[in-house]
Specification:
six-stranded antiparallel sheet, 2 domains, mainly beta, ten-stranded mixed sheet, Jelly Rolls, 5 helices, disordered N terminus
């Protein structure tokens, strides 16, 4: 939030307040402001918190009250936030705007491991998908640390030219340029013109190109990168169980601006896994987990993966055939929720993870990467929920004669 006095803090234009043909503001709908500020609507501060903030936060050109933004779309993933917007000067349309804000939590660690600090700037790699071009355009843009929001940020404008007969305010003009907080990217001309229709943008971040204050060059190979680290997604390239061909390396974040998805699980081809969440043979070639067999194959339909925002990693549908098992494993820094939709089986939860399970039978189970651990055996059926927080352990077995099916959500908890 800006510390400017209320009268100097611009708000976004209300829907319907723009005369599209004339390209200027014809009126300001006060009902729009009231929806977010009226005492009777305090619930917006809690339930719709981001909606309120995005219309009042400090954007670059609002250093001058002559500029107003109309924020159209917002997408986030972890500490990345991107906005599609329009910007107006003295009520006249200037440009579409693509704004990125980045907290750099992961990039700070990458730089620290190299004995460096990020200081006041980082580089964003941006690639809109698709853009009618093959390959799609891409560009690197410098991001400046902004104390108003406590993050690195940049605004890509369609043009930096003011409307005819109007001059930029000096305090906004001072931010404009190749490495400014407000910039234009020639190879993004088509992207910016069609910004409202663009549904996917890939992002990655690296240290600035020269170390501060020493000034020595930092190559791509030496630079710390936050490109989602080892993040990948699963795709049914082949039906071979546990084939590496089904793991697609992304090496970037995806912000999905599509507003809705209508999907049917049966239309999604499964990816098959042999002995999922189980260790292989020991160094002497002995299989120490009795459940690890060549025929222990389960199917996963990956419903939503990179399209998620926030801290979500995936939402998928799992089918475990009779007699098969997903191995016991632990979550650190993530949480997962299973919801059983069909069939019956046994879920395993580590002893002590939920005190309410103290009366269920105990069983020692091999746990991926950890060796034997003690678990509670929990009978599950349609409607059962297994919720595992960071540090918790779980697994699941089909004890019935029909397929056991459940959906699972996994997300970062840190």
């Amino acid at each position: 939030m800006s510390n400017l006095p209320p009268e100097a803090t611009p708000k976004s234009l209300a829907p319907g307040a723009i005369d599209a043909a004339a390209g200027k503001v014809t009126a300001h709908a006060t009902s729009f402001d009231t929806a977010f500020t009226d005492a009777d609507n305090e619930i917006f501060k809690v339930v719709f918190f981001p909606d309120r903030i995005y219309h009042e936060r400090f954007l670059n050109a609002t250093r001058s009250p002559r500029y107003r933004y109309n924020v159209k779309e917002v997408r986030s993933y972890l500490d990345i936030t991107a906005m599609k917007a329009e910007v107006y000067l003295d009520g006249r349309f200037i440009s579409n705007v693509f704004r990125i804000e980045y907290g750099a939590t992961r990039l700070v660690e990458q730089a620290r491991e190299r004995g460096r600090f990020l200081r006041d700037a980082v580089i964003a790699w941006i690639q809109p998908l698709p853009d009618g071009a093959d390959p799609p355009p891409q560009a690197r843009v410098q991001m400046i640390f902004d104390e108003w929001i406590g993050a690195f940020q940049v605004e890509v404008w369609e043009t930096l030219e003011p409307p005819d007969g109007v001059a930029h305010d000096f305090c906004v003009l001072d931010q404009m340029g190749r490495n400014g907080a407000i910039t234009a990217v020639p190879q993004f001309a088509s992207f910016m013109r069609s910004l409202p229709e663009v549904t996917k943008v890939q992002l990655a971040f690296r240290e600035r190109e020269r170390s501060a204050p020493s000034g020595y060059a930092i190559s791509d190979a030496d630079a710390g990168w936050d490109n989602a680290f080892l993040r990948s997604h699963q795709a049914p390239v082949t039906t071979d169980p546990s084939s590496p061909r089904n793991t697609i390396q992304d090496l970037s974040y995806l912000l999905d601006f599509q507003r809705g998805h209508f999907l049917h699980v049966d239309d999604i081809q499964p990816v098959f896994y042999r002995n999922a969440m189980m260790d292989g043979p020991d160094p002497d070639g002995r299989q120490v987990n009795p459940d690890a067999r060549d025929d222990n194959i389960i199917a996963m339909r990956w419903i939503v993966q990179r399209e998620f925002g926030g801290s979500m990693i995936f939402f998928h549908h799992v089918t475990i055939p009779p007699g098969r098992v997903e191995g016991n494993h632990q979550h650190i820094g993530s949480e997962e929720l299973y919801f059983i939709v069909e069939g019956e089986g046994i879920a395993y939860m580590a002893d002590g993870d939920d005190p309410a399970t103290a009366d269920f039978p105990l069983e020692e189970r091999m746990t991926m990467g950890l060796g034997p651990r003690t678990f509670r055996r929990l009978p599950v059926k349609p409607g059962s929920v297994i919720y595992t927080k960071s540090g918790g352990m779980h697994g699941i077995r089909n004890m019935g004669t029909a397929d056991l099916k459940f959906v699972a959500f996994l997300y970062h908890s840190t």
